[in-house]
Design a protein that fits this description.
This protein is of the alpha+beta class. It has a single domain, classed as DD-peptidase/beta-lactamase superfamily (Beta-lactamase, 3-Layer(aba) Sandwich). The protein has 9 helices and 9 strands. Strand 7 and strand 8 form a beta hairpin. The longest helix has 20 residues. The radius of gyration is 20 Å and the shape is globular. GO terms for molecular function: serine-type D-Ala-D-Ala carboxypeptidase activity.
């Protein structure tokens, strides 16, 4: 077939595709097709990377282009990487220096859940709470932040604050184009109706990293509360210059683990003004770090 014939065939194919779309939302269809094209592009141009996690991606934060993907659109449990969205909403609707009084929401929901050690009656700022959320991955901090944001946006106490905050999370996910994500809580404890994808989490993290306050919080190796009554250490081993998983330029973002989700990690690193975001889902305790290092090495070499 000559060039003219190929162009005609392409036009006919495009017309048929539009006819098939019919009453579907055209913008959503085109966006999904672009995502799939990016994933195919990354897979065909990039050398194979041995990734142990069930799903993974590494994305150029400036362009949004996926440089490598493995089952990046597969719905999976995100564990505590959920807290990226919680922090994003807190920064969108809250005030960093506003004081929050911890309520009964700080009581544990599960015997082995991660906590920031918050106690009922404790007064802390939103900045303190977000540091307790993102560094030690406190589920107590997640609930404190969620209740605070719902009460702030709705003008007073709300009995079903968890459901109201989940609704805010899902609305924000939809706004960002995270079409395969649904949240049921602010912390990521297992719920069959709480899921996301590597691609969507990269999208959410990319949005969050646009906020200077978020970047400052997740890049900190440790944090002491403004009142001096709490100290939080960061679980992100990529930031530890003395550790075996140190990553040059690492500046975030969030670890995660549940028995259903496995080990998860959303990471970010910046070199020479170029920011990359990687996501690994359902990996092992060690492989989640080595997977991330491989993804970042590939991303910076591409």
């Amino acid at each position: 077939m000559n060039r003219k014939g190929r162009r005609l065939a392409a036009l006919v194919t495009a017309a048929v595709a539009l006819a098939v779309v019919g009453t579907e939302d055209l913008d959503a269809k085109v966006a999904r097709m672009m995502d799939e094209a990016k994933e195919r592009f990354a897979g065909k141009t990039a050398p194979s990377i041995a990734i142990e996690g069930s799903a993974a991606t590494v994305v150029d934060a400036n362009s949004g282009v996926a440089l490598f993907s493995k089952q990046a659109h597969r719905r999976m449990y995100p564990a505590s990487t959920t807290k990226i969205m919680t922090a994003l909403l807190a920064l969108k609707y809250g005030e960093l220096d506003e004081t929050i009084v911890v309520g009964e929401e700080a009581r544990p929901e599960a015997p082995d859940e991660s906590t920031a050690g918050l106690t009922e009656g404790q007064a802390l700022t939103l900045r303190d709470a977000l540091s307790g959320l993102m560094l030690p991955s406190g589920n107590d901090a997640a609930r404190v932040v969620a209740r605070y944001i719902v009460e702030k946006t709705e003008g007073g106490p709300v009995p079903n604050w968890n459901e109201r905050f989940a609704a805010l999370m899902n609305a924000e996910a939809e706004r960002l184009g995270a079409r395969d994500t649904h949240f049921a809580n602010p912390h990521g404890l297992h719920d069959p109706d709480h899921y996301s994808t590597a691609s969507d989490l990269a999208l959410i993290a990319r949005e969050a990293m646009n906020d200077p306050a978020f970047r400052d919080i997740v890049a900190a190796k440790s944090y002491r509360s403004e009142a001096g009554d709490a100290w939080f250490g960061n679980r992100n081993k990529l930031l530890d210059e003395e550790g075996e998983f140190y990553l040059q330029g690492a500046n975030g973002v969030k670890t995660g683990f549940t028995s259903d989700a496995g080990y998860c990690l959303v990471a970010s690193a910046e070199r020479d003004g170029r920011l990359l975001i990687s996501v690994v889902l359902q990996s092992t305790e060690t492989d989640v770090w080595t997977d991330t290092l491989r993804l970042m090495a590939h991303g910076f070499s591409t």
